[in-house]
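Quick entry between incubations.
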Amino acid sequence: MKRNIVIFLVLLLTITLMAFVGCKKEEQVVEGPREVTLRIWTKAGPTEEWRGKAAIEAAKELNKELESEGIVLTVEAVQETAGWGDFNKKFTMASEAGKGPDILCTGHENIAVYGSTGYIIPIADSVTEIKSMAPEFDDVIEGLWGMTSWKGQIWGIPQDTEARPMFYSKTKLKELGWSDEKIAALPDEIAKGNFTLDDMIATGKEAIAKGVIEPGYGYWSRPKSGGDFIQYYMAFGGQIYDAEQDKLVIVKDALLDWFKFQRRIVTEGVTPKNFLGTDWGIWHDTVSHNNALFFAGGVWHFAEWATQHVQDIGGMDYLFENFGYALQPSGVRGVAAQQMSHPLIYVVVSEKSSGSPNQDLAIRLLEKMTTKELNTKHAVESGHLGILKSQSDYAPYKADKLLSETLYMLDYAFFQPNHPAYPSYWSALWTNMEAVQNAALTPEEGVDAVIAVLEAEIGDSLIIK
Amino acid sequence: MGLRSRHSSSVTTTSVQEPNNGNIFNIDTGKKTLGNKYDWLIFMGPAMILVAVFFIAPVIIVFIISFTNMSSLTGFSNWSWIAFENWIKIFTHPQSGQHVKVTIIYVFFTLIFFNVGLALLLAILTTHIPKAAGFAFRALWLVPRITPVVVYIMMWKYLMADSPYGIFNEIFFKPLGFETSEIIAAHPYIAIILVNGFIGASFGMIIFTSAIESISKDIMNSSLVDGANIFQRIKYIIIPQIKWPLMFVTTFQTLSLITSFEQIMILTDGSYGTEVWSLWAYHKGLNNYFGQFQWGFGMALAGILVIISIGFCIAYLKFFKFSDMIQEPKIETL
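Done. Structure below.
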């Protein structure tokens, strides 16, 4: 009996001591700085590393503030080079498993999808509120907040934006007999709607006829699927979205005119037969080496071409010497031109999806990332447009010829809608546009097919005009 | 079955001196033990577990999800049951017919011309030339299969690209004065059949080669003595002798082609009307440009493939009379 009592007392003493040791340990953790790690995921090419590096740099600034709060912040930035589909799939699966990042850099059109599922959280309830949260947010170009809004709330902070110009070969136009003045005036003529898509085709045909360019090299669009093509639907008076009814829109006449245009570029010989699907490597090599007269791309392509395609023949100097850039021509004479911008945004991932309760810290980090210094580094290196008002007067930004000369294009920008059915909408347009361009369908059949597919897939979210 | 037959005979021959393997083969006592009744479980168990985990369970999950509206919009937690809505959508979708058409064309022609046809031709040719040459030739045909698929498709893309990048256009069409074009886009069905067929042919080639080489030399030689030419030899000797592997390859490759899409995905990603049914399911359910997924609808599309594949299995088993060919050896049934 005595033996049992002794054993009991020894056990009790051991447990009590262990409990004290445990308490002491806990106290030590509270006394020291709390270590917090924020994870950020971005999709970035070789020239776009500042999408993630900005967070690492910003953490240094934020850590100065956090010192007094007893927090040491570390940032882990993961930069993916995968396509958008794979990148979004990775985020979706990780979020479902509660292992998503704290901050995600994504296209603004994903707000509706990720907001619906609770993967991301709203950052503010209005534009006024987000602007009042930090001077850095107040500096964001006003028009960009619209892209981060969904159901009246602000769900993201702009990361970058861009313009999708119609590039043209200045040297080829000169060979065609255009004067320097006429070439210099082209962007303005396009902006006003005096030089239309019809004129572009006619100029391309003339250049081919005179041997300035090879047949099929008058106009090269993007070679693969991408929202860029919707610029030509808009060029013929299209409408994508009705904000009041929160529905997607098809304007049949505009759709038909667009499809006719896509077919015409082939039948008129300015685009090669069966062009869509051309490998990106071939496309970049062809246009960057001055083989096409007109070609649709993005401002960021200049940085890519300068560093990866024409670096041995003059790089950026070669590009400026040979190429000009304008808005996407209108399809209707006298109607102002447009171009589509596709801003990327940073969104804050919910606690449930990230497995981390540091949403407030993530927002504070975003404040420090949204500075003219960091954003200009990204803009200049990657060829993307800035997102801050202060950048237009910031010397390093102004010194970049391409960025400063294309900044006006944001005034003519339209954006893809933040509507969950938009991916289905785009998919139907692309599939049938491709069929029309390749003569598998007539333009009229293409329009009918688009409407049939959309009515089957997203009929409740669609207005047909 | 063979084991059971052997054991049944041992019941009456207790004097047979065989080691007693415990409860399973209790020859000495002659009693029917538990092991006798369920011994097949021991042999089949591991395979059955694998089939259950990696085939039956996924199929059940596919069908369950197909009755939901699960998508990127609902996540994995906010979905709801929608009965047959996804299945009805398949039958009323305006693009379903196109996907069926391209799938039939792709499966039928790849199977006939390459996975069975070319495979048989290669096997016959390489078994009728000197052995070393035949081996080398067959090894060459394995190259497409062992080349990483992305590299393999990139090679095809540059072979068939428009001039001045495309090798076919530059070497053949342009010098001969033909109009050059992006060949994949101009002839998309031919492109996907060729690209898949060059990989697929090697599987049948290996099976057929070993089958032809296992035909008794006596029969082959006597056909020569009888004056049979090569075509008669193929028709009356080789084909009947390799009937079983021929049927196996046809069945296996049909099912394989119905569900395969990776080469097409990398080559065209479904452009130019080449989106076969399985690629359609993949795009809708698991991967697309904007990364928005309709898991419920995608699973219904995949469910159709499961039903069709099972249908093909049953049809092939009946039509080719597989059961006749897997009879017990006569020595066991005596």
